[in-house]
Design a protein that fits this description.
mainly alpha, 234 residues, single chain, MetI-like fold
Length: 234
């Protein structure tokens, strides 16, 4: 049997037996990325909506900054978060470095600009259609933001999925602030990188398969839910 076939055979065996290592790593990955996406929804979606309909000095500069941060190198974000959370940093007293919380923090900084930029475009298109109507109804600025976020909730699924994809595929930042510690801060992407360098290809392939399946399953679920909601609510 060739090395390629043997590696995939061992990877399938790990998945079929539901290996404890694989399960633990997958669960932590979902916790970290899920936490980052929740934070991205709380801050990124309102921020994007405010940029879309707000009229304040520096609006265009902030929009350009958000678009630029969509492609921010994850290792740079990781170093910044590391400095913030290190013992000599401003947040060092909380002892968050090399914990899942530090990884959520780092991923959130990567996810928020992406979700905000996509939300800004979605809400901006809706604002062009509804601005006059909302003004006639004498909606305040914040009422307009919340109304459009609710009305565009199905379209904003794209922003959430984009944030989830960015978070789950991230390697550099979480490795720097999490330390890739076994049974503590080891997620799928960092484990794949580590095990590949060690030559443990079956585990790397098994986790890669799980990562792809999870992302595809979440996207399929979100697509189905969006289609159901649009059919039900028009």
């Amino acid at each position: 049997m060739s090395l390629f076939a043997a590696t995939f055979s061992e990877a399938i065996s790990l998945l079929a037996t539901f290996d404890d290592r694989v399960a633990e790593i997958v669960v932590l990955s979902l916790r970290v990325s899920g936490g980052a996406v929740l934070i991205g929804m709380l801050f990124g979606l309102p921020l994007g909506a405010c940029l879309a309909i707000g009229n304040f000095p520096g609006k265009h500069t902030l929009s350009v900054l958000m678009n630029g941060l969509m492609g921010a190198p994850s290792v740079v974000v990781g170093v910044v978060v590391y400095l913030l959370l290190s013992r000599s940093g401003p947040l060092g007293d909380y002892g968050l470095l090399y914990t899942p919380a530090a990884m959520v923090f780092a991923q959130s900084l990567l996810v928020i600009p992406l979700m905000a930029a996509i939300t800004r475009q979605v809400i901006e298109d809706a604002w062009q259609r509804c601005a006059e109507e909302l003004r006639v109804m004498r909606f305040s600025w914040w009422q307009s933001v919340t109304t459009l976020l609710y009305d565009c909730r199905h379209s904003l699924v794209v922003a959430v999925l984009a944030g989830l994809g960015r978070g789950m595929s991230e390697v550099g930042a979480v490795m720097i602030v999490g330390g890739n510690i076994d049974r503590a801060t080891r997620v799928m992407t960092t484990t794949i990188a580590l095990e590949t360098s060690k030559g443990d290809l079956p585990l790397a392939i098994a986790l890669g398969v799980v990562l792809i399946v999870v992302i595809l399953a979440l996207n399929a679920f979100a697509f189905a839910m969006r289609g159901w909601a649009m059919r039900r609510y028009g």
